[in-house]
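Input sequence (538 aa), recorded before submission:
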Amino acid sequence: MKKLSILLKGIVVGFVSCAIPGVSASTFAIILGVYYTMIESISMILKNFKKSMSFLVFMLLGYAIGALLAAILVSTIYDKYPLAIVIIIICFIVGSLPNMIKDLIPHIKKVSGWIVFIVIVGLFIAYSGFVVKHEEITFVDMNYVDYIKLLIIGLITSITLVIPGMDFAVVLLSLGYYYAIMDLMKNLLFLNDVLNNLLILGTYLVGYGVGCFLLSNLIKKLVKKHEAIMKFATFAFVVVSPYMIIKKCIIDNDGFYYSNGQLIVGIIIAIIALLSVMLMYRLTNKDDKRVNAMKKRNMLRFYFTLIRELPVTFYYLIKMKKMTKKQELTFEEKYAFCQKILAKVNKLGNVYPVVVGLENVDKNATLYIVNHQGRYDGIGALSALKDFPCSFIADKKRICWPFYRELSTLLEAIELELDNPRSEIKALQEMSEGLINGRSYLAFIEGKYEDNGNNLQEFKTGVLKTAYRAKVKITPVVLYDTYLVYGKSSIKKISPEIHFLKPIEYEEFAEINRKELADIIKEKMQNEINMINTRKGV
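Predicted structure, token format:
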């Protein structure tokens, strides 16, 4: 998934930098969060070739694909819809600003940083006013002098990949090589005069590569010695880029025209672009130090599920909110509706749970004791009990998000605050009364999850009090591989397993204490996990 992410970011950087005048490749690399990794990889290519290439191969492949797409589409998309493209790109930039501002906060009082910021903004505004377009050249009947010139052009344009704010398209336009390079890539894509075009492109890329290597080493040293100042510098490049884009794409564009259709399309796609870049930052937050099972970057499947059928997501969320206010609905009616949503969540997320041992389940009041692996556990366990209505007990902090909050309300879940003893006593008392009145409950006896995967953690015995008080049976439930659903960045088909073990009747544990009972349950669950491991060859 990481390699795919790098490839996609490379495509975006390559496309916007080649297709849209005013958009800098390095500025967009900053926006997408790959700039400093790119600089590090280029500068270390001789010292750590394998590690550098593991990033650069996918980044450059993506860049090449993006550039080729730009060569094909620049004359259609950008020329026909300049306003829509400008709006979309600016929204990408705006979406990146909160994260950049967050990085600047610790250095906000650094005067030298603000001086650098003002100087860079001023320089690039001046730069945008002085750059002029030269007469366009063509790659026809080239001699050795032309190849030397092309090599130098490669060296010059390499600054656009390494130095934020310097735009590839604008620099090439000013040198008279933009359309020649675009036509060259288009001809290569359609296999026209391949050998000659490869020689020309290769000459350009040699100069480009050498320039990138030399400049990357310089940037790396600057970042190492002046980290805070460089943060102000990159912030300045991004802040000034909307002005550069508007100037080059609208003010200085003789072919620019306005239409209401462009504006509407631009706004709609721009909102999607803004949400996409914000989501990307949530998924790639380098400051998220939590265990893997809790990191947002591993929630790709969850966000994919929400976005895949966005109107349906909003429909169900709104309907759930409305249903929470309908007092006349029975618990069974609300439970049936929630099961429809859980089935939809599984289908959209490409999750196909394997349920084992339903013969051990009935509709009598039961305390289901479940192991805890990750965010999907509640969805998985509840969806497995489709025809057996039950509620659950959960940490109040974990069910405060949209969907989870409405789900817990509809299913009359019992909420407790783990750090509040009074809350725990009240919650367990409420749960005991529910069991006495015939309601079944799911309880995650480990209380929390970490990066434990399919390994059992310490059992908290407090929740077992409810089974003693209500004199109900306990059914151990083993979750297997559920941590992979929302704990790994993937949307491939996955089949977590939910195993219902043989119930432990009240008479079997009435005379033993909670610690002994917990040990018995844990042993049964561990034996089941061992059998699954053996079957899977783990």
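Checked by second reader. The CA atoms of residues 283 and 297 lie 4 Å apart.
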